[in-house]
Amino acid sequence: MIRAMNRLLLAAFLLTTMAGCSDDDDPVSHSEPVGIHLAIADGDVNGTTGYDEKNINTESGNPYGEFAAAATEAIGGEPSRIVVDATTIEIADGSDVAELDSVFDGPIAVRFVMNGSDAEYEVATGVIEAGAGPGPFDLAVDFDSDGIPGEDYGDLATGSFKVVLEGEVAEGFTALETKADFEVVFTFTAYE
Predict the structure, then answer these.
(1) What is the pLDDT of residue 31?
(2) What pLDDT, on the 0 to 100 scale, is given for residue 27?
(3) Contact call for residues 174 and 105 (beta carbons, < 8 A)
(4) DSSP string computed for 67-130
(5) Helix or strand or coil: residue 33?
(6) pLDDT 10s digits, 85-127
(7) Are 88 and 110 within 8 A, CB to CB?
(8) Cα dihedral sign for 78, 87, 53, 180?
(9) Which domains does the chain have, with CATH numbers?
(10) Is the pLDDT of residue 159 over 60?
(11) Are strands 120-128 and 137-141 parallel, antiparallel or unpaired?
């Protein structure tokens, strides 16, 4: 009798524990890849650094807006947490250059800048070296909205932020007097 009671208590404990974990650990909504088109021309280079920025919600079709709406609908409210699972960069169709290493030679970074506060959050980094090709090139991702203050999180959840691309340009890029077009692609996950 005592053994049967212990088994019931253990089973109840395990069910309660598993139910409690699933709400926080299971993703509610996975995005389709969210791409944004950025460009760096010779005039966008300051010293040895190339730079471009663009609001995430101005991309054709607003793919981030679609992700945010789908996550909100699935959850029944604003997600409590948004994570970037992967980020890639590649040369976009129609670019005047064909290889990433024609533009960059060294470290690059992708950041989110919140429209309300101008606070910057690093999302992904990488090092472009000779032979990188056109991409897609995987960047090391380190972005989780945990710890982002309320106003900034509100901007993140509603797509009120800029994507910034910055990197060390290759020697001779400015002499080309040309423009490089990139597609930066994020994979986001929203949690309840």
Answers:
(1) 76
(2) 65
(3) no
(4) HHHHHHHHHTS--SEEEEEEEEEEEPTT-S---GGGTEEEEEEEEEEETTT--EEEEEEEEE-T
(5) coil
(6) 999 999 999 999 999 999 999 999 999 999 999 999 999 999 9
(7) no
(8) negative
(9) 29-191 (2.60.120)
(10) yes
(11) antiparallel
pTM of the predicted structure, to 2 decimals: 0.84
CB 54 within 8 A of CB 182: no
In the chain, the amino acid numbered 129 is: E
Q: How far is CA 33 from CA 17, 36, 86, 130, 185, in A?
A: 33, 10, 9, 27, 6
Euclidean distance between CA atoms 152 and 20, whole angstroms: 28
Q: Which residues face 110 on adjacent strands?
A: 124, 165
Q: What does the alpha-carbon distance between residue 4 and residue 2 come to, in Å, rounded to a whole number?
A: 5
